[in-house]
Amino acid sequence: MKKSQLFVALTAIIILANTAKAEDITFKNIPWGIGEEYLLENINNITCHDINDQSQLVAGDRYCYLPYGHSAATIASVKASIMFFFFNNKLGDVNISHIDSSEFDGIASTFKEKYGAICKEHDDIVQNRLGAKFKNVHIACVGGNATINLTKYSDNISSSTIEYQTNDYQKESSARYDKYTTKRLNDL
User: Fold this and answer.
1) CA-atom Rg of the chain in angstroms
2) Distances in Å between the alpha carbon of 117 and those of 12, 19, 22, 120, 158?
3) Residue of 139, 143, 146 lying closest to 168 (CA atoms)
4) 8 A C-beta contact, residue 31 and residue 16
5) Structural contact between residues 121 and 139, judged by C-beta atoms closer than 8 angstroms
6) What is the pLDDT of residues 71-81, one digit of tens each?
7) How many alpha carbons lie under 13 Å from residue 28 in its C-beta half-sphere?
8) Which pTM value belongs to this model?
9) Cα dist. 82→2, 52, 59 in Å?
């Protein structure tokens, strides 16, 4: 084998070794499908609740919450609020919010480094109430049975969000949304 071919082969091996496989998408190595008991046993001071509002049942039956400032409520070493959503006592969604948008580029770089080629980026323009326009960044890392969506400006220009979801969770949430919408439409 020539030196140039050997170099290309070694480079490919290094890139593949440093790029997570699609099935490796998890949040802090918490297994998908676990029940809330796992979180209660492994994370101090986490609180779990029923979701009683019919319009919110598309998000799950129950959720567990880590408030901003909790020692475990971080993403890439940045403070956040974290909600874990469950359908039928199976974790399917992790929603990370209240991330300072000035930290987004560093977090996005970390995700791209970890997940590599399965992350795709697109931009759009958002406008605030005063008419100022900003470039909004969306990154989706899709693979295996899960997707991660990062959004630079979510509720406002100072807050970013990240959401991990399993494909099964997305299907169940969509089915519940359709059922809820049909129920509302039939009440017109």
Assistant:
1) 19
2) 13, 8, 10, 7, 28
3) 146
4) no
5) yes
6) 899 999 999 99
7) 16
8) 0.80
9) 51, 19, 14
**Alpha-carbon distance values, 32 to 89, 97, 114, 180 (Å):** 11, 20, 19, 26
Q: What is the 3-state secondary structure (H, E, C) of the chain?
A: CCHHHHHHHHHHHHHHHHCCCHHHCCECCECCCCCHHHHHHHCCCCEEEECCCHHHHHHCCEEEEECCCCCCCEECCEECEEEEEEECCEEEEEEEEEEEHHHHHHHHHHHHHHHHHHEEEEEEEEECCCCCEEEEEEEEEEECCEEEEEECCCCCCCEEEEEEEEHHHHHHHHHHHHHHHHHHHCCC
Does the pLDDT at position 117 exceed 90?
A: no
Residue 86 near residue 36 (C-beta atoms within 8 A): yes
The token pair at 98 is 């209240």
